[in-house]
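Posted in: Structural Biology > Protein-Ligand Complexes

Title: Requesting predicted complex, adenosine-5'-triphosphate in pocket

I'd be grateful if someone could produce the 3D structure tokens for the following input. Sequence and ligand are given below.
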Amino acid sequence: MGERSGLTSDEIAIEQQYLTALHARVDAMRQEAVKRLAGTRGSDGGSVAVWRAEVTRLDAVRQGMCFGRLDMRDSGSVYIGRLSLFDEDDEPLLLDWRAPAARAFYTATAAVPRGVRRRRHITTRDRVVVALDDELLDLDGADGGLVGEAALLAAVTAGRTGRMRDIVTTLQAEQDRIIREDHRGVLVVQGGPGTGKTAVALHRVAYLLYTHQHLRTRGVLVIGPSRIFLDYIGQVLPGLGEHSVVTSTVADLRPGVAVSRVDPPETEVEKGRAVMADRLAAAVRSKVRMPDGPVDIDFEGQVLRLDPAACRRAVRRARRTGLPHNQAGLVFQRDLVDALARHLADRLESVVLTDTGEAIDGGSADGRLSEADLRALAAAGVVVGQDDGPKELLDDTDRTALRDSLLADPGVRAALDDLWPRLTAEGVVADLLGVADRSAADWSAADVPLLDEAAALLGESCPTFGHVVVDEAQELSEMAWRMLMRRCPTRSMTVVGDLAQTGNPAGARSWEHVLAPHVADRWRLARLTVGYRTPAEVVDATADLLAAHHPGTRPPKAIRSTGETPWRVRTTPADFPAVVARLAPSLNGRVAVIAPREHVDRLAEALSPGAAHDPSAEVVLLTPRQAKGLEFDAVLIADPAAILGAGPLGHNDLYVAMTRATHRLGIVHPGPPPAELAAVRER
Ligand SMILES: Nc1ncnc2c1ncn2[C@@H]1O[C@H](COP(=O)(O)OP(=O)(O)OP(=O)(O)O)[C@@H](O)[C@H]1O
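-- Reply #1 --
Done. Output follows.
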């Protein structure tokens, strides 16, 4: 890495002056936007939205607006920040970090300086420059691999606030490469815990929106594992000036479906398998009834008869359209109504009328049109008078009117619906799962992709996006993948995850396995290898666990050590809650107690009030699943053996739990420690 230069207060003063000028420029732009916004009163909503978005954007990028400067060997200096700014003469003042020319800020090293002589990290608070950190890159130097190391270390060691921060000032080269990868196709980012997958995915969204305007119109969707997680990352994109991204969990992706139940692991696995799609399709198909004999339908007092061959023909024709069930049902209905209308018209026309309207052939026994015939014709809008007996009994308009009145007739509709019923997604899934009382069907997270699949089979459309980001992607079942693919017809996706952290037994064991059915081999893999969250001491504590369950998987390379060795404490089952409650606050900072579900109630009682429910509390109680993607200054694992034993992927859950710590890790085990943790120092 480059050599640090001595920094004088003069240099801080120079940067302060520049920063003040930048803020003055943004103040002026904001004022202008506010004026324009006021001027749009009464004008179209479009320009109101544009100016409102501009004010929001300018407010959002204020904090840390300018964070870097590159001094080039052959040209002048460039300031790097959260947006591009130009002075009144259109001279550049600040370069958006996403612009191609800003790239060297993240990738230049002493070994490959990319024309950069000096890289300066500028730390600001509000409108004040508080620190500068320089690297000189034109000296011969070994390449340490990290860019802006002092600023990076300051960022990763800072206390956690409970909300994720953006890392735009200290992005590393391996991360920058992924962020700027082509947006087309599926990019999988695999990396161990704390390697910045979430951070990279979110910065990639900001980069893609900046670079590809069409994505602003088409929309970007970010999928996360839980609402707590989405809340945790919720500030990152707005801080990068992006407010339009939709974030959701898979379970929340279907409006109107409330998840209120947790399935046992075996059920979750079963519901997650792709074969459920075939079962749902078969279930929907089976709802179409082929009658064995003729079907009699009452219409306006007459009996119309559908013969089974006509029904079969209509089913075949409807299926041939390839339309989803409910739409194909309309084709089926229309087909049979046509048949019925023909049938009715033939019957009516077989009545040959005299000039005075008397029937001389067929019709009713007395040779006149029956009452029912007249009613049917009247219902179809055909007026048959005694004096002006119809010359053409049924023209095209009459036939259409006849079809419409057949279609509108409740008796006809009920008969057709009985053959090809109109279905709801909830009904189909409840039926397949054998849920007795449909109205009370309360859904689990694993039911949501089934409901979505059923809805698609029935012909409901869902919103689609130009790019979809899937975080903690290893947790998604095959059915959940199908659901997401429907939302991304262009298959432009960023998928980030870690197969060693899969906790959902229906989740991924291999990327190939979950992606190939949708994109064949058109996906590419990028890896992140450096761990920014967990210090070396915590990484070491997980070594035996990782080796036992994922032999061959290398843990992330930690960029720092804290000197704080993880410890474990043995206790008795009886004392366990009290010991956890006593130790948790002593860990200092923002602390997570991570425990298996079976202990949550007991521990919630023992811990400070609110811990169980308030993720922003100083001490928060979480299950490993809830802790996914989050991080804390300190973590206390409560009963690791129970976490390991809670399900087939308990070892991955324990790995997730241990790697949430940015500084300190403690373990409380009632009884002997699991073998995987025996090497952790006993206290
Ligand atoms: N280049 C960087 N500069 C500063 N901080 C970074 C950098 N990269 C990652 N971090 C920090 O490291 C921590 C872990 O990042 P992140 O949550 O994105 O990791 P992850 O790979 O998604 O982890 P997990 O798999 O455990 O969910 C975050 O606090 C993030 O801000």
